[in-house]
Write a structure and sequence with these properties.
This protein has eleven helices and ten strands. It has 331 residues and is an alpha/beta fold. The protein folds into two domains: 225 residues, Alpha/Beta hydrolase fold, catalytic domain (Rossmann fold, 3-Layer(aba) Sandwich), CATH 3.40.50.1820; 97 residues, no CATH class. Helix 1 links the parallel strand 5 and strand 6. About 3% of the residues have low confidence.
Length: 331
């Protein structure tokens, strides 16, 4: 099957495979009271591929299925802990996020692989999903056939500081509103931690206002292309709250990774073929991060997309992702 322009995209903008539905799905008990939603679409006997969503907290998207040839791939998606259709959701009043760390998510991926009886799979991850994909591959290189990383991030303290402070040089008006939503005493230091305290506040007026302010900043960071359309999911208060709580939970703790850990451990995936896809106009994550990974990763290829920012819907991003999945379909 060949990709085609989907009904939701203007002609010529994004060549994706046709829309498909999962042929099997379920909830997997991963412990600590967590149930994660998973689904499989495409060819039941095809090349296994796992897609990891961003955020943390975005939840999986049906569009992601369309990056893969459904005749060639067995396409696996899942919602990470407390996100999407996984339970409990991070927007719930009494939610406990203590059993939601990078280590927990990596263990969940392995449990899902074993549950689906998959020996090796290609891993695709975008934004936070690229961090998670790389961390997983470094810990379990024998089960990863290839890596496709888009809008690449390694979630270092430097990257988090850039997203919450450094990018203000491009968006001063939006950043001023972002910081103004915090108590004056919290406008120094770790902004993600300061926001997380508000987001976990029991008063709905407090945590909903914080969620709206956080998501407004997130949307500003990705709206670099003139044709950019804000995601409608940000209109949903439950999504905003759950998403903001999880992002700040991870960023306040540097994703429980040592500073520079993923770049330092690239030798673990030195022979794993991979593609790094990144927008040259990505304000939230400059090109230097995938460039450094590429330099340390002999088996990788770097694709810098000229008109794109961080959003996978920007011109050239989806086409580059589809091209990467096509390059690995028979390997």
């Amino acid at each position: 099957m060949r990709p085609s322009t989907g009904p939701s995209e203007p002609p010529g903008q994004a060549q994706l495979y046709p829309e498909i539905e999962p042929h099997v799905s379920g909830m997997l008990d991963v412990g600590n009271g967590h149930q994660i939603y998973w689904e499989v679409s495409g060819n039941p006997h095809g090349k296994p591929a796992l897609a990891l969503h961003g955020g943390p907290g975005s939840g999986s998207s049906p569009t992601t299925r369309r990056y893969f040839d459904p005749d060639a791939y067995r396409i696996v998606l899942f919602d990470q802990r407390n996100a999407g259709r996984s339970t409990p959701h991070a927007s719930e009043v009494e939610v406990d996020l203590s059993a939601n760390t990078t280590a927990h998510l990596l263990a969940d991926i392995e449990q899902l692989r074993e549950h689906l009886k998959i020996d090796r799979w290609l891993i695709f991850g975008s934004s936070w999903g690229s961090t998670l994909a790389l961390a997983y591959a470094q810990r379990h290189p024998a089960v990863v056939s290839a890596l496709i990383l888009a809008s690449v991030a390694t979630t270092t303290p430097r990257e988090i500081d850039w997203i919450t402070r450094g990018a203000a040089m491009f968006l001063p008006e939006q950043w001023e509103r972002f910081v103004a939503a915090l108590p004056e005493t919290d406008r120094v230091g770790n902004l993600a931690a300061a926001y997380h305290r508000l987001l976990m506040h029991q008063d709905p007026q407090v945590h909903q206002a914080a969620a709206a302010a956080w998501c407004e900043w997130e949307m500003a960071l990705v709206a670099v292309h003139p044709r950019h359309q804000p995601s409608k999911r940000y209109q949903d208060p439950a999504f905003r709250l759950g998403f903001a709580r999880l992002v700040t939970h991870y960023w306040a703790n540097n994703a429980w990774l040592e500073d520079g850990e993923l770049l330092a451990n690239m030798e673990r995936v030195a022979e794993t073929p991979g593609v790094l896809i990144h927008g040259r106009l990505d304000i939230s994550g400059p090109l230097v991060t995938p460039w450094q990974l590429h330099r340390a990763w002999p088996a990788s290829r770097l694709v810098a997309v000229g008109e794109a920012g961080h959003d996978a819907g920007d011109p050239g991003m989806r086409e580059s992702i589809v091209s990467a999945t096509e390059s690995f379909r028979d390997i």
